[in-house]
Every structure is written in C-alpha cells, then in structure tokens.
Amino acid sequence: MKIAVFGVTHWDDEVGAATQEPVISEWERRVRAFIPQCTQIFLSTGSYSPPEFCPIDVPVVQAEMYRGAPYSMRNNYFHYGFKTGIWKKVLDNDFDLLIHCQTTRFLGEDMTNHITEFMNRDELLMAPRFSSLIGSSIDVGFMCMKKQAALYYTATGRRQSFSLDEINLNCEEEAYMMFNGSWYNPWLDIPTIRQLDISYCRDDIGIVYNSPFTITDIDKFRSLPLIANGKHVTDEFLEEWKLAHPIPNT
C-alpha cells in the first residue's frame, strides 16, 4: 500500500524557515515513527515559499502565488496549500491513501491498526473530531483520504480558498458537509485533540461547536494519541504530552 503524507505550512524567507525548523523537524520524525508504512512525505505551501529554505529535506509542492493580504477566513492560504497537496497526488496518481497531517499536529502513537481498519471499511475519510460535545465536526488537521475522497475534493470542494463573500465555509465545515456520511472516527471518546478552543456556532449548516471547550485536566491531555500544537496548546501541556509520547529511539 502506498501512503503519502503531507503537511501545509509556509515561510517568507530564510529566517522564517529557520524559526519553523524545530517544530517541522519533530513533525516529520513523528510522522515517520508513527506511520511506518509511509512511502512519501512532502510539504505544501499556501503561498510562495522559497524552496531552498525548506526546513526539512522533503519535496515542496506549491504554486507561485504571493501573499497579498493577511491570513483570514476569506484569504485562506491554508486551504490553498491543502488543496494544492491533494491536487499533486491526484495528478501523479501514485497513492492508495493520502494523509494530511498538518504541521501543527503531532502524532503520539502508531497509526498502523487504525489505518488497516480504515482501509477495510467502506468510509472514505478517517479523522478525529475538530471539537464538540454537542455536535460533530471533522478535524482536517489529521485526515486520511482514500483515493475517492481525494478525487472528491478536487471535483466537488465546497469552498473557495479566497473569497470576497460575507459568508464562507471554513475547512472543517467543508469537510463535514462533504464527508459526514462517509466519515470513520476511531477516536469517538475524544471530543477534541486541541487543548484550547474557541466559541463557535453555525446552526445554519447543522454544525454546533461546544462554546467554549478547553481541556483543563492535564492527565486527560497526556492521554491523547495525537494533538494540535502551536496556538492550540499551552507550553506546559505540550511539554507534558511530549514526555508521555516520546518518539521511539530518540
């Protein structure tokens, strides 16, 4: 089975790439350790990033689209990089499973059994919840796509990467609308892989996020098999999680 894994990121210059290097290097080591069947890792950028400054030694997929406005829901450079990564694999048609593991996601356990179970099931998508105790939404930060799911994204995506519209879907809402009927979540007991979250509600499309949701139990956070890092976690919780989930042979 050919498994490709990609993460979305960007850097404006050599300094920006060097700043990201520690996190992205750890991200890569965790991908290789906990998805041992992975046959390719690459990065996809949402706006042009000089490839010679890539923080790790993997291919970089991108279009020469320069950042002309600050990141926002309307100017969603993440979504652009996410779709660029999907298009790359669809066009080269050299994969059985495409995994988007955002560079702001750390894996902490072997995913082999989950991947095997998923590939034997009918669902097209495997992912944890974004956040919710009330409703459900798909965390696109760690999302496993069978080939049909990747093709579906290229043909029938529900949102634009850049829009002047007043109302626009975010990436989690898009995934929920596209795959809620074909979504496998092996982590049903985990309401979110984020320690910190924001109040959010979109009753108009049937998604209700808990308002607010914050994991305050550090033991609960230590037990999570994968997490969102960066702005979604405090330094204390991140360090405790790393101690509970070391990278093998490091």
Structural summary, described in words:
The protein has 250 residues and is an alpha/beta fold. It has a single domain, classed as Spore Coat Polysaccharide Biosynthesis Protein SpsA, Chain A. Helix content is 32%, strand content 16%.
SSE layout and pairings?
Elements: E1 3-9, H1 14-34, E2 38-45, E3 60-61, H2 77-92, E4 97-101, E5 105-107, H3 112-119, E6 125-126, E7 142-146, H4 147-156, H5 171-179, E8 183-184, E9 201-202, E10 207-208, H6 218-222, E11 226-228, H7 235-244
Parallel strand pairs: 1-2, 1-4, 2-3, 6-8
Antiparallel strand pairs: 4-7, 5-11, 6-7, 9-10
Condensed summary:
With 250 residues, this protein is of the alpha/beta class. The protein has helices spanning 14-34, 77-92, 112-119, 147-156, 171-179, 218-222, 235-244; strands spanning 3-9, 38-45, 60-61, 97-101, 105-107, 125-126, 142-146, 183-184, 201-202, 207-208, 226-228.
**Could you please say which CATH topology applies here?**
Spore Coat Polysaccharide Biosynthesis Protein SpsA, Chain A
Range of strand content: 15-25%
CA-based shape: globular
Specify the CATH class: Alpha Beta
CATH H-tier superfamily:
Spore Coat Polysaccharide Biosynthesis Protein SpsA, Chain A
Distance between the termini: 27 Å
Question: Which key phrases capture this entry?
Answer:
alpha/beta; seven-stranded mixed beta sheet; Spore Coat Polysaccharide Biosynthesis Protein SpsA, Chain A; single chain
